[in-house]
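Hey, I'm writing a tutorial for new members on how sequence and structure tokens pair up, and I'd like a real worked example in the thread rather than a made-up one. If someone can provide the structure for the chain below, I'll link this post from the tutorial.
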Amino acid sequence: VNTIVLGWTRNQSDPDVTGQTLYFNAGTGEDGGTPLGAGVNSYTKNGLSDETQYTFRVTVKDTDGNESAGAFIQPVTVLRNPANLSAVPWNGKVTLTWEDLPSNLLGYVAGYNVYYSQNPFSYVTGFTPAVRVSATGMGGQAVITGLTNGVPYYFAVTTVNVSGGERKTVTTVSAAPRSDMEPPVIDSINITEGQVITEPYTINVKVKDAESAVASLAVDVDGVNLITGTSSSISAFYNIGLQGAIYQNGNHSIRIRTADTLGNQAAYSFGVMVSGAAPRPPVLTGTIPSGTVSTPTLTSVNGTAEEAQTITLLVNGVQWSQTAVVNGAGQFTFAAAAISEGGNELKAIASDRRGSSAPSNSLYVTLDTGAPGGPHSLKAEARAGGVVHFAWSPAAGEIPDRYHLYQSVSAFSSATAPGVRAVDNPGSPITVAETTYLPDNDLVYYYAVTALDESGNESPISNVVSVAG
């Protein structure tokens, strides 16, 4: 049977108070009121129903019969205790779970008190709660720690209503904490059974342990360790481009080994198939200057590719004499690369046990060391039909890209002298050390040639010759 005990501070400041009245409302309206003496400050109401909210109002009257509006309170009687209480033992602790009260009663719930003892009990009078848990509407949970493994404990949960009351009679559940016997388990991994691996692959693993800390985590391939760590996550680079049995095409076993701080160990295996595709092309990212350079050696040609690959550099399609090896960060460098006068196209090719990649992206740079040397030994020969044949020798050093043929009616010392003009056809440049020319008439003219490189730098003129067409 539920009882509500009310208490209040009576009016002591007004001398003409003659009495008090307590009104009770069970949800159907106030009763006629219960008269109380002027000095009363408490009241006990018996015979109330469970899980019910009641309204009480206390008023005062004076000698003239005036009645105050009063003070009211809406207490709630004790609620049922949670259903389906369960206990799960762990290492030195027990997790308790239970169901919240029905939704129509949740508004009356202030929280839940959790009690436990090493001895059985059926009521909690005189007990101190181990913990107070808020009501969520989604079920309750509490973790009781500091327990001794192997010792049985008894647990009970009571519902505390908004008036602070709880049902003291309880039904307990029992559980005995036990030593952690469970190893870590895989929380996430990017390997699946039967996965086909076609290129170097980073294996990412994360494990978890419900009770103890993770002490070690390792990744093996066919019994060969790739990496071992002490945290709950790890990344292992499985570079199938390397030589060695564990990287060859075919079936392999990837094994995850883990242990917690209590020595509980586990291993998880995944069968995979390695079927190496051709390497991806590397990426040239070098600090090659744009435009034109004046020195024939590039001081830094950099790029990225897969670790441990061998990189071959191509300059204008010709393999350079040195190679580079990709480091653990996936980077490679050619400290000095020789280039040729004029335009240069640089590409790279990556190689490993799977073969060679397609060429990389291209980088372009032009080498301009200045004008080529002037041609020499120019000779002119008149031929039939007024045609003049010219032949000369290029200067040593830079190979010219093309030549200009100049003409004048008198001897000259430079291509820019007055009266000197180029008579070669711009649409059909002279690219070898000889050419023919048909003058406009059969007068005697003076001729010289110059050499030009790809950048348009022009040499001094050759020796000057004269001939009539």
